[in-house]
Design goal:
This protein has 222 residues and is of the alpha+beta class. 42% of the residues lie in helices and 13% in strands.
């Protein structure tokens, strides 16, 4: 009987996941604490916590990995433009919702362009794009002091190596950069406070606003 039961359980799990596919809440809100770092092997959350406290695992890298897994960290722009379209604004609203979960954390916004135009012009254009994202995030209630820096790489770090127009290269990327007030770590009880706050909040389903159509955005290219 063990053989047929496993496929049945798997099928039910797939159906359950499919039914929740249109939910507009972060996946970690419906999982046990530590689930987002558990790849199925027993004890992974404990090992992860031990490595953080021992300094073996870079907490900024770890948190940035979670950020990029749970939200879209990139928004794209029209050619020669720093204006945020509706798709970009929808993505940034989700970013802001995530950022508000971690008031101790700071972020950087990196601006990029495609290769059309001079290096100097594209550096300025990348800066304007990063500035536009920072302004939008502050308008969503994120303190400007938490947006640690606005950086432009211009055309120097393309996703697609081409001298032509390429929307994928015309982007900003939001990343975790550190902690407020230059905290070297979240130890001395602060890391535990963050985990406890998340655990309590995970018990309450939230309904983020203005995220209609996000699933469609995530499935689009460019």
């Amino acid at each position: 009987m063990a053989g047929p039961i496993k496929p049945l359980i798997a099928a039910v799990s797939v159906l359950a996941l499919t039914a929740c596919g249109d939910r507009t809440v972060f996946s970690s809100w419906h999982q046990e604490a530590g689930a987002f770092i558990d790849e199925g092997a027993f004890g992974n959350p404990t090992m992860n916590n031990t490595q953080i406290h021992n300094g073996e695992l870079n907490y900024v890298v770890n948190l940035n990995r979670r950020f990029s897994q749970e939200v879209l960290s990139t928004v794209n722009f029209a050619f020669n433009s720093s204006q945020l379209d509706e798709d970009a604004k929808a993505i940034l609203r989700v970013q802001a919702n995530w950022i508000r979960q971690f008031p101790e954390v700071r972020f950087k916004v990196f601006g990029h362009t495609d290769a059309v135009g001079s290096n100097a012009y594209n550096k300025r254009l990348g800066q304007r794009r990063a500035n536009a994202v920072v302004r939008f995030l502050t308008g969503q209630g994120i303190s400007r002091s938490r947006l640690q820096a606005v950086v432009s790489y211009g055309e120097n770090r393309p996703l697609i190596a081409t001298p032509n127009r390429e929307r994928l290269n015309r982007r900003t990327v939001t990343e975790v950069s550190g902690f407020v007030e230059n905290h070297p770590t979240l130890l001395n009880g602060k890391y535990a406070e963050v985990i406890f706050r998340e655990y309590v909040e995970s018990a309450t389903e939230k309904r983020p606003s203005n995220q209609t159509g996000l699933s469609a955005i995530q499935s689009q290219g460019g």
